# Entry
Amino acid sequence: MMAKELYNLGEMPPLGVVPQQMHAWLIRPERFGTPMDALRQEVVDIPSLADDEVLVYVMAAGINYNNVWAGLGIPVDVIGARNKAFARGELGEPEPFHIGGGDASGIVYKVGKDVTHVKVGDEVVMHCGRYSRDCAWVKSGGDPMYSPTYRIWAYETNWGSFAQFTKVQAQQCMPKPRHMTWEEAAAYTLVAATAWRMLHGWGENAVKKGDVVLIWGGAGGLGSMAIQIVKAAGATPIAIVSGEDKFDYCMKLGAKGCINRNEFDHWGMLPHWKDSAGYAKWLKGVRAFGAKIWEVLGEKRAPNIVFEHPGETTIPSSIFVCDTGGMVVVCAGTTGYNATVDLRYLWMRQKRLQGSHFANTEQSNQMNELALRGLLDPCVSRVFSYAELPVAHQLMYENKHPHGNMAVLVGATEFGLGASAKPPVAIAHPTLPKDDVHNTPHPYPMSEPLPSVAQAEAITVADDGSLVRDLMHRGIVSCTPDDTVGTVAKIMVNKEIHAVVVMDSTGKAMGVVSQTDMVLARQGRTPEQARALRAKEVMTPGCATCDAGMLLSEAVSLMTGRRMHRLVVTEHDQPVGVISMTDVVRKIIGE
Ligand code: NAP
# Structure
């Protein structure tokens, strides 16, 4: 049949008939910005297919943060990156626009000549992992997730599901659960496949019958999937959430018990291990948290797996409560990336801290089996019309979107269409409290390219060129190794400084006594005992130095990297002064 050049939205072309053009929501570099500005409806040509590719008529699409980042153009200009790669003759694409949407349900309309496992007319859902079938690593049986050709569809590649048609590799297509509506089917794959790999992908630590699994963010996108996957494996999920109003939701999904994280306040990076009082306080907090796990579990057992994504604020606790030989598996750092680990617990109790990212084709299909069997509720919280697509992303950008998975109709003309069978088992479809919205902004997209040793793009560092010598304080306030802490304290107070350099008899800096060292020395001692200590006993040995000619920004990185507040400044290897964070703050206020 002759195709029309363009079909209206919702006007379904006859099966297998592909028009020349389609309606799509486009992002273009000239309007990078917040979703309401970045996303516009346009008409574009339908792309041609490679031999292993498939064109799917999109019925509904899932919504995730990647499109917010793509629209902002930060931290990566995905369009520019693809265009440049294409120009270099590498894996890239030439189009000057981006069509997002990395989750979808739809109907196969056209297949490339090598495609065998799907055919025109098949109802499918799609996972977002693409890779080259010609990659030597993949051909040798390696996990495609580690292939240099691996790309996240609709973020690192174009032609996502926010359009009438989407272009995917055939291996991305999986059968759509017949009992689900189009929008339900479009909502779960990304989060559920990620959770599946985290729980099933790591060898001897994979979840098994009888295991206990502690799940962060049990009412969130990943957490709600994790609860169901753990339950289906015959293991026991314990969910952590930020309020008791979410307990019922997690319990209905299959959690054995729930913990309100707001009952505890020991979160955050670990105190320094030398800080005995701080560490003891932290230990008290994390032990109470561990005891709460036992309480909700009804027995004194540590979790075999901790399902992690908050990252910086929770990893210390996750490592601590995880069982000997167990695994903390992490796919994100929503609260920050610098996770601190008390290595003693990691090595003495032989725990595993495992990174995990999305899922490969096999794992995505294993997850989808669960959905096909009716054992995975997609946990849809809100569905939008096609016209509301920017609104959905704007809510996400402003962190005002509801918990759970969201979807948008594309080809489907009404909400609730597409289910052609009864669920194989009854599904509870629990709902979250009405006013429950997100409270933690997403730091970065899941597929932000990380710098590696072989870096195609040059890394640029923004710097105003200030040098250490422009801000440093000349002169070193020092003490001898045998001066008492009492003497050092007097020097600090009288000179209004925060650290004293310990010099040996040859004038060489042996270490630094900082205010922190003094405070730590006081712990567990009377004031008299603390005052009587020698500088050499409390100092931080070695002396972090920088040259006066060093860039200020480099000195700041040295300090933040080592969690220090000052450096001794040298000229010709001789200590001549001090640069401190206070000096940098002074520069900021323009003093
Ligand atoms: P989500 O729906 O926003 O859920 C995250 C949950 O984290 C929230 O429900 C929240 O629950 C909890 N949370 C927020 N702040 C917390 C804190 N300070 N401490 C502990 N828990 C906190 O997000 P999601 O879809 O589950 O995704 C979670 C993270 O994984 C995101 O960063 C996402 O980008 C990433 N991700 C990675 C991949 C991958 O392949 N690598 C795939 C999907 C998602 P409560 O407030 O109730 O505790």
Notes: The mean pLDDT is 91. The two ends are 76 Å apart (CA to CA).
